[in-house]
Amino acid sequence: MAAVGFSGEWIIFTCDTKLVAIHTKQDRDPFVFDCSTAEKRPKTKDDNSSDGGGSEETGSDKVLAFTVSPSGKLAALTDDNKRLVLFRCEPSWQCVSVRWVVRRCTAMEFSQTEEELLVADKSGDVYSFSVTEPQREGELKMGHLSMLLAVTVSPDNKFIITADKDEKIRVSHLRSPYNIQSFCLGHQQFVSALLIPAGHPHWLLSGSGDGTLKLWEFESGCKLQSFNLRELEETPPSEDDKQKNPTACCIISSPDAQHVAVLCDRLSTVQFFSLKDDREMKIVPHTRLSLPHCPSDMTFDPSGRLWVLMDSRETPLQIYTLSQDSWECCAESAELQRVTAALQPHRETLQVSMKSSSRYEHLYKVSYDNVTAYLQKKQQRLEEQQLKRKTPQNTNGKEKKKMKKDTTETITSS
User: Fold this and answer.
1) pTM attached to this predicted model
2) Which residues, 6 or more positions from 210, have their beta carbon under 8 angstroms from its beta carbon?
3) Average pLDDT of each block of 10 consecutive residues along the chain (414 residues)?
């Protein structure tokens, strides 16, 4: 899946095997990092197994996740070949290190002090990689019993919050993750996205495959609000979509801490919420933005404008600004034209990465209704028994024996 983010004045794209950083204010050469041409993993003695190393697992070099540090000075990505690449963004882009993770990663986040990079993987583990010692191997930090899908760190750098495939949100102490502060429980499907909104350091927003957006006071695990994202849609869903819950794949907050934007997987709309410190309503639906094409990802820039990456060959990127309580498209923006032109050589790669199917289809719980099958078989047995009772018997057991005896005697006398 293609993704987009900001590091200061640089907008960052990940598409297929590439990371592309483009300066939005100046005509500078883009920075491009291609995982397919990056450093290969060195072979070790363990690779020379009894089968001659023929079973060595290789990936596709596709970028699986990336993140930017709170200050915007650092960035990192991980790919399908288990690379973990650390970048320095200021004063100019450079690759700091290439390390290796144990298993393929699903999410990553810098600590608030930017001293460590926390990497969550599909087995449920979180590893800590040093930023100050960029060549040091990762250390196991904590673990879940199922695949992790999201990770974030509290603004005070005290807690690490992780979400998994089994509906759990776990709040742990960052320095001693074996000390669990709380669980935020209530989702009915996998938890796909987490966000601590800007300006509200004790709140947590979570999105799930159950079609809801929930607001928590995460230190206590108390649920403050819950929204059914399906009910917020302006138009009724089609017959095919009625069976599917909208899954929040991206939750972001504006720099001024006034708005939260929620993007659902494979839906061409963005739902905006307003944040308030009201006793009754903490977060209120604000407006809904309809997009011309299916979006892949979105991000706010430092000035509060919303950049949306969409599945379109002609207009893959659009900017939206808030004007009189509605979000308007800025198609004539000079920054947009600069970025679009710089992105042109990578347009085909971008299109290919946005054509993939939903990333969440395989995560839904599968239910088996064996009660219905049992009742059907029971009803069938009852009907067969009733049919046997109604059918007259031609002969009873004694008559059958007598007829058999008479037949035998007749044959003998003959």
Assistant:
1) 0.84
2) 187, 188, 189, 245
3) 92 95 94 94 60 55 95 96 96 95 96 97 96 96 95 98 96 96 96 95 96 96 94 62 79 94 94 82 89 94 95 92 91 93 91 74 75 81 84 56 58 54
